């Protein structure tokens, strides 16, 4: 926890701090939620649906220096897809050391992923157990769900992927650097979680 808070508060010079996580599964199903509609014409959602088209998964990274999201949507959620995504991040910032904050999902810790990171100037920084709230990406996923998925009934993955992409492009055009993570939280106190007796 201290290591992650330090990376948030004091990004290393010559390095880039990224929060990485997966979002999904992305089902094709009616999703309740608010939507802009003409008065007296509420959104009608199907009462039943079938999962004939499978599910998809989004892998995303939040760049704290710019506040921009980078993402890929894939059919599977394995270490191969995760490693492929890391390679796109490495190509985006070839001259900087990358500090990737992620949870303890097994594909993140796969030996192939660890070996590639060690050889390519990428440091994996894992969250403590039961501390997903410490990953800044979680708040971004909440916004994706609220602005791109709630109140929708997408019939194809292409339609759903387009809605997610449209929101992320809109969001990235307005992005600001991410600073001051939970500044008033007790986690920033040196005696957290216990006080000296």
From TrEMBL:
Molecular function terms, GO-annotated: nucleic acid binding
Superkingdom of this protein's organism: Bacteria
Stored SUPFAM superfamilies: Ribonuclease H-like
Residues annotated as domain Tc1-like transposase DDE: 16-152
Gene3D superfamilies noted in UniProt: Ribonuclease H-like superfamily/Ribonuclease H
Protein name: Tc1-like transposase DDE domain-containing protein
Species for this entry: Salinispora tropica (strain ATCC BAA-916 / DSM 44818 / JCM 13857 / NBRC 105044 / CNB-440)
Lineage start: Bacteria, Bacillati, Actinomycetota, Actinomycetes, Micromonosporales
């Amino acid at each position: 926890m201290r290591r992650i808070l330090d990376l948030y508060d004091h990004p290393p010079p010559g390095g880039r701090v990224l929060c990485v996580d997966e979002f999904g599964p992305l089902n094709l199903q009616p999703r309740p939620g608010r939507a802009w509609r003409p008065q007296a014409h509420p959104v009608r959602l199907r009462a039943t649906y079938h999962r004939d088209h499978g599910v998809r998964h989004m892998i995303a990274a939040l760049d704290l220096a710019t506040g921009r999201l980078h993402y890929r949507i894939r059919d599977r959620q394995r270490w191969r897809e995760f490693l492929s995504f890391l390679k796109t991040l490495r190509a985006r910032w070839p001259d900087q050391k990358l500090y990737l904050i992620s949870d303890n999902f097994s594909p993140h810790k796969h030996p192939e992923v660890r070996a590639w990171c060690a050889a390519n100037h990428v440091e994996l920084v894992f969250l403590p157990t039961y501390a997903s709230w410490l990953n800044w990406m979680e708040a971004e996923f909440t916004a994706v769900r609220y602005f791109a998925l709630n109140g929708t009934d997408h019939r194809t993955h292409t339609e759903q992927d387009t809605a997610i992409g449209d929101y992320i492009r809109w969001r990235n055009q307005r992005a600001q650097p991410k600073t001051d993570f939970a500044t008033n939280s007790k986690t920033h106190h040196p005696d957290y979680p216990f006080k000296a007796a």
